[in-house]
Amino acid sequence: MTFKQLLAATCVVALGAGAQADGVKVGMITTLSGGGAGLGIDVRDGFMLAVRGNDDIELVIEDDQRKPDIAVQLADKMIQSEKVDVMTGIIWSNLAMAVVPAATAQGKFYLSPNAGPSALAGKGCHENYFNVSWQNDAFSEAAGTALSGEAGKVFLMAPNYPAGQDIMAGFKRTYEGEIAAEVYTKLGQTDYAAEIAQMRASDADQIYFFLPGGMGISFMKQYAGSGVDKPVSGPAFSFDQGILGAIGDAAVGAKNTAHWSKDLDVPGNAEFVDAFQAEYGRLPSIYAAQGFDTGLLLASAVAKADVDDADAFRAALKEAEFQSVRGKFSFADNHHPVQDIYMREVIKEGDLVTNRIVGTAATDHSDPYGADCKL
Amino acid sequence: MTTLLLIEQVLNGLQSGIMLFLMAAGLTLIFGVMGLINLAHGSLYMIGAFAAAAVAAATGSFLLALIASLVAAAAAGVVIEVGVIRRLYDRDHLDQVLATFALILILSEGTRWLFGSFPLYLDVPAALAGPVTLPGGIAYPAYRLVIILVGLVLAVGLFLLIGRTRIGIQIRAGEADREMIAALGVNISRLYTLVFALGAALAGLAGALVGAIQSVQVGMGEPVLILAFVVIVIGGIGSIKGALVGALLVGLTDTLGGVLLPLALSGIMDASSATTVGSALASMLIYVLMAVVLIFRPTGLYGTA
Question: Whole-model pTM?
């Protein structure tokens, strides 16, 4: 723990050395250790790449270890003793629900680089909460639309927790076709032999699943070894760059939906991919792209308004005047993104397993919860 | 549900039980012989998987990877036993839990320093990829069958080691009365190191075997550790036979419960709530099993008071 604090302190010193008095102080709480650390590290690295050399932004980084209680403690510390102006970084919906409402109620701005629980998009929306990633349902709503009419009977599988149910609800909301079966697994489950046997026995034509991180790796490897040959698809979380290397060839051919891909042909994206690779020696993931966009959004607002003038700063954020690596990007009235969502396919480039875009799944997609938001 | 599907699910339950046995055997030996609660056992499982992934990536040989997992986990076990654990035998269980929990944190972050935060690639060998057709027309992954066989061979080997060899006699004697066997001239501290290394090697091998079909990542050992503790509580702490029976019970209950409960509930409620309630109940099932066993056999199935 002491080491982490030391590391955080070093980051503060390194990044804050040139900070001016009228700059903005940013508190980033993200997951840097434990099972889900890859996501937090990508968000952090993307964000730091975007604000590199910007003397107006002072950054404090802390590790929440994917634990809600620790995230809450860190948030209190950042608000009360560090006196940050803006907070960001949280990866998981349950941690966001523990931190965001309290932080925004105390007048802090929160920019979400990942996680979009429906509760914060509808009735619980807040003028100081900006989601720069997606609302949880978005990718699977787009997938439901895109797969309608061609996928036949679909076998749905997700972990039994709120985000898993949200994502399956998103798919069912837009999919016009039959659902063969719906299976909820334990969160953190590592063996999917029983579910794969059910898939083999069912009359489904296609598998649609949401299993983020290690769960997705386990499932895909076991599925490939089982000899079941029904096509698989899912939201991008199960097929992201950080885990494709661990799945290997077993993922090739899988379809997945995302708002970004490294081959997306929009201004600035190729430069982002090159710069990220040069800086960190690995390909960026969607999480890195979200972290990068969050950094760009913040920098655009800092250039326009003083954070002490909350109304002006909020208006500057709302304008979202930055060149997103996703191309078109704007905020709906509930401060959640309006963006295009693409269908990607896992391919092999030489020895590298990665994604390419094969089509657009949804244009100008925004979430259905905004209607309940009073902003 | 067809008979074929049921048989396939029973095989899945057996396979997960056998893997749990490899974890639980080491844990129960260490607790039985040394009276030590070792929370870091899951980290040894992780070390085995990471060593296997690194060697498989460097050499391309799965067999070498398995050997590496055994060697690395046993070596880590020896270092941990001599460096830390040895000082804890006379302390109470709370101190042991505290120290071995610290080891989990140290080993997890150490592994992250060495290998980074992203999951590693480790795949089943090409010869065992894909399914084989069993009598009756069941298509079952070849690799999982091999896991069942390897686990059974190791179980038999362990029973022979404990029941038929001189080392085994010393281990059993150490369980019964450690002062007495020390008085009889057995080098007790070497015996403890040996038992710890043996338990570590079994955990490391389990990590490597399972890592090939799951994900090799930091923190992979802790969920298995919890299940392994359930297994040794059900089987009776210190009993290898109890560990085997407990592991198979837990593996079968976990697998079959997840499949059969939603199916059984769909008779009395609508499909979507049957799925949700069924999966929720299924994840409690092994703990219910543990509670029931403890009500009737407070020391576990094969435990001695």
Answer: 0.82
